Amino acid sequence: MTTIKKTLVALAAALPLLAISLPSQAAMSPYMEKALIDVCKAAKSNSIMKLKGTTKSYRLQTKTVALKLMCNGQDVISFAESYGADKTATRLQRSIGNVSITDVAALSKVKVTF
After folding, report:
1. Strands of the 74-75 sheet, one edge to the other
2. Residue 38 CB neighbour total at 10 angstroms
3. What one-character-per-residue DSSP string does 25-74 give?
């Protein structure tokens, strides 16, 4: 094989791998980003009604929000507590229940900074 053919074969083999890896780097949609920011603001507000209304309007489960959402680099419960929002932090904590979690591998969390 000539070097040109070798180069073309190598490029042809690498192209599908590159095409598969690019969509995983896609940015979050503006709607989802707005929804997550609104939930962070509702958690910060210390109003259980506002938190419940916001999660319901975006069709999010409180347990999912409590386990996976990060606001400004903190999980949502710690974020609410850092702003003195004890009512919403307690509500989010109760949604998780009495579960002990053993971290076997890194979990993917959604990070929102505003």
Report:
1. 74-75, 69-71, 110-112
2. 19
3. GPPPPHHHHHHHHHHHHHHHTT-HHHHHHHHHHTT--HHHHHHHEEETTE
Assigned token pair, 60: 């999010």
pTM above 0.90, yes or no: no
Helix (H, G, I), strand (E, B) or coil at 92: helix
Q: pLDDT tens digit string along 40-81?
A: 999 999 999 999 999 999 999 999 999 999 999 899 999 999
Handedness of CA 75, 86, 43, 113 (dihedral sign): negative
d(CA 61, CA 25): 25
